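Amino Acid Chain and Its Fold in Token Form
===========================================
Structure side: the spatial fold of the chain, written down as a series of whole-number tokens.
Position: the record begins directly beneath this header, with no further notes in between.
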Amino acid sequence: MKRFLDIVGSLAGLILFSPVLILLYFLIRNDMGSPVLFRQTRPGKDGRLFNMVKFRSMKDTIGPDGLALPDAERLTPLGRKIRSTSLDELPGLWNVLKGDMSLVGPRPLLVEYLPLYSPEQARRHEVRPGITGWAQVNGRNAISWEDKFALDVWYVDNRTIWLDLKIIALTVKKVLLRDGIDDESGISMERFKGDPGR
């Protein structure tokens, strides 16, 4: 049933938001050039890797040392607005339709975090990652990594279709209120450095 809802929901979302997707494509291309989509390898269910897609929100600006500038300096005004409204996540509906992701589940994080999880935290990979999740509607970037992972594992143990519908409804509310998405600078929380209790 969950997979059926993912297919129906993602297909309906891609059709419903197709005018927004097309508009954002041209706005981003005009503002930042190509590519319009940001692609990155992320771990999915059981740690299997897949290519996640999002709308690009930062320029590929390189500093004098040959390294990419900090996020705050590469994030454009358009990119900041796209992030704050979560519109950058819309291409992820394609990942859901393909089966790499679910509408609801723990957010897919960086591959480099895989060896840093405790065994309990690693249980977040027992289900497909989601566009939104229990941690996202209970604090998102305002809570610690440890609390976020605890919420992810709670979802793994308590997931139901009704809980998914509740999370989707709460996500819509939070996006409309722009609650807990990013800090004022538009930059997400600091990187996970490992469980201090390991």
Notes: The two ends are 36 Å apart (CA to CA).
